[in-house]
User: What shape does this take?
Amino acid sequence: MISVAIMGHGTVGSGVAEILTTHKHKLFSAVGEELYIKHILDLRDFPDSPLADRFTKNFEDIINDIEVRVVVEVMGGTNPAYDFVKRCLMAGKSVVTSNKELVAKHGRELLEVAKENNANFLFEASVGGGIPIIRPLSQCLVANEVDEIAGILNGTTNFIFGKMINDNMDFADALKLAQDLGYAERNPEADIEGHDACRKICILASLAFGKHVYPESVYTEGITKVSLEDVKFASKLGYVIKLIGDVKRDKEGKLDIKVCPMLLSKDCILAGINDVFNGIMVKGDCTGDVVFYGKGAGKLPTASAVVADVVDCAKHLKARKRIFWTEGNSKDIASYKDSVTAMYIKVAGNGEEALKAFPNSKVMTEDNKTVLITKEYRFGEIEEKLNSLQVLSAIRIGNL
Amino acid sequence: MISVAIMGHGTVGSGVAEILTTHKHKLFSAVGEELYIKHILDLRDFPDSPLADRFTKNFEDIINDIEVRVVVEVMGGTNPAYDFVKRCLMAGKSVVTSNKELVAKHGRELLEVAKENNANFLFEASVGGGIPIIRPLSQCLVANEVDEIAGILNGTTNFIFGKMINDNMDFADALKLAQDLGYAERNPEADIEGHDACRKICILASLAFGKHVYPESVYTEGITKVSLEDVKFASKLGYVIKLIGDVKRDKEGKLDIKVCPMLLSKDCILAGINDVFNGIMVKGDCTGDVVFYGKGAGKLPTASAVVADVVDCAKHLKARKRIFWTEGNSKDIASYKDSVTAMYIKVAGNGEEALKAFPNSKVMTEDNKTVLITKEYRFGEIEEKLNSLQVLSAIRIGNL
Assistant: This one.
C-alpha cells in the first residue's frame, strides 16, 4: 500500500480523490499496490465526503507522516504551495502538481530539490489538462531536437474566439457567455491577457530546450484588442484568429518565444481546434509535426493527468525520472523586436499610406476599411512603420 | 556504455543508426551513458557505410554477445523476426521493434517471454510511426477506462482519399500516384485492403483492453470499392470518407472492432487529417477525446520512435515496464453483424425501393442516382436489407 496525500480539495483535487476511488482496481494493477488516500489538506470542512475522516487543516500532518510517499499539490497559486511542495520534496516525498504558476515560476528550483532528495517532481497536468504532453515531450520525443512548439494553450480564449467566428458574437458577449458557463473566472485577466498561456509555453520551452524560461521574460499579448470585425476580415482572407503560445530558436540560437493572437491559415491543423479544446504542435527534426489535442481543462481530464503522475511516482519510488532543466538567463531570450513575421493590418480608408509603408501586401477593402496582409519583416521594423500610421488593428500572422 | 544491436538496415533500420549517431549527445544526457551500435544484422553488404565494420550476416554474433543489452528489430515480417526476437528476450536482452505484424501476431507471447526473463519488449513505432501513442496510452491514460479508440492508421490510404477528395482523381490514378511517390508498395494489398490498419488497431485494442486481439478475428474491409462518385456525394452531404480502425466495448462487454471506410462528418477532428498523416482518437472516461496526430510512417519519424524506446530500455535495464496483456479469445470479439451503424447507400434511379427498406433516411438524387443516409441499424439487419436491393455502394457512417 502506498499512502498519498492531496493538498487542496477544489475542482481538480476532488477529481483526483474521485479517480483514486473509482479507478482503484485499474490503478492497483498498474502500480502493483494500492494507492491509499491518507490525508486531504483543505481549510474548508467537507463533513459529507466519504473521505471525511481523512481531512486535515494542518500541513504538518502530511510532512510529518513518513508513510506518505506521494503528495499531490492542487491548491493553485504559489503561496503556500511553493513552500509546502519544497518541504515535501526536502523530506524525500515525491510531488505531483497541476499548478502551472508554481512550475513556471519555481520549476527549476523544485526539480533540483527533488533531485537532491531522490524524489520525483511531476507536472503532466500543468499543461494541456488531460492531454498527455509533458511525458511524450520528455520521453517519446527524446530522439528529436525540438525545432518549435506552438499551441492553443488556453481553452477559455479559444472558446471566446469560437463564439466570435461561428456565432458572430462580439468579444464582450462571448466573454460573458464563457463566464456564465463556468469556463472563465469572474476575474478573467489570467486567461484573456495571455498570462495562463504564457506560463504553459514557459513550461514547454523549459522542458524542450533545457533552460528555465521565466514568464516575465516572454512577450505576452492578450486577445482583448481583437474585434469581431477582425475575425470576419480574417475569415474572408482564409484565416482564423487564435491565441498562440509559440517558441522556437532563432538564427542566433536565442529563443524566439511569445504569446499573442495570430492569424492561422484555415489549412493549419491548429486552426481546426475549436471550443474549449487545446492543441499543441511539436515540430521535431525527426518526427516532423506532431499534434496533441484534447480537453485542456476541467475536473476529470486534469485530475486523470495528475493520477497518471501519481502512478508514475508510485512505480518509481526509488528511481528518479529524468525530467530536468537548468537555470535560465534572460539573455537567452531574443527581443520580441527581432522576431520575424507577416502582419494583418487594418486601417480606415483605402489604405494608400499603409501600402506605401508595407509594399507588395495583399489588400482587401470593404466598407471604407482596408486590410493588408504584409510580407515578412522584423517586428522592430513593423513597430516603427506602425507608429507613423493610424492603424485600427495589427495582428501577427502565424507561420506554423 | 550500453551496446545496442540493430537487426535490419532498410529504411527504418538505417534511420535508427543515423539518429543514434547524429543525436549522440542528446541521447547521452537522456540515458546517462553512451548508446553504442555494436552490431548491425543484414544479409546485404554496405561497404560505404561509416558503420561498415559493425555489419554481420550472422544472428549468432548478436545473441552470443553478452555485452548487447538492447536489440532493435526492424526487419519486418515474422520470419525470422519472431524467432530472433524470442531468442533475444530469452537471453535477457530487451527488444525494441517497429514491426506491427510481429506485435499483432505474437505480442502476447513475446511480452510474456520478456516478463519471464526480466527484459523489456517495446513497440512504440509499430503504431503511428513517429506519433507517441503506445506510451501515452499505457502511461498517461492509466487513470482512464478507455471507452473507444478510432484512428486513421494508414497514411497511404489517407493520401489516396485526399487525392480523390481534393484533386478529383479516381482511385486507380490516386493509387498510381501514391506508388510513384513511394508511399505505396508495388504490391499495395496490405494498405488498400486494410490489413496494415487492422494490425495497428489490434495492437491498440490489446493494450487498451488488456487481452490480445488477433488480426484474423477483426472485420476488415479495404478501400477499393470506394469510387470518386462516392467521395463527391459524401462531400455534398457534409462528409469525408476515411479508412478507420475502430474499437469499443458493446453493451455485452464484447469488443466491437473493425477496419473499414467510413463517412465522417466534416466537423469530426479526424476528418481534417489529410495527406499521409495519421490521427488516433482515444476516448477516455475521464479525459474525454484526446487526439494524437503526425506522420504515421517514414524513415526518421519511425526511427525516432524506435530510438525513444531504446532510451527507455537503456534506462530500465533492471526494471520492467508494465506493458502487458493476456491471451485473447475470439469469443470476446462481437460479430460484425452485431455492430450498430448508420449507412451511406447509393442506388440507381430514384431510390424508391431503398427508401422502403430504410425509411426515414435522408435522401439526395442527382444524375439518376440516389444516395440515402440511413438511421442506425444492427449491421446484420442492414446486410439482409441490402441483399434484397440492387446497391451501387454501401459505406458505414462513423459516429466519433
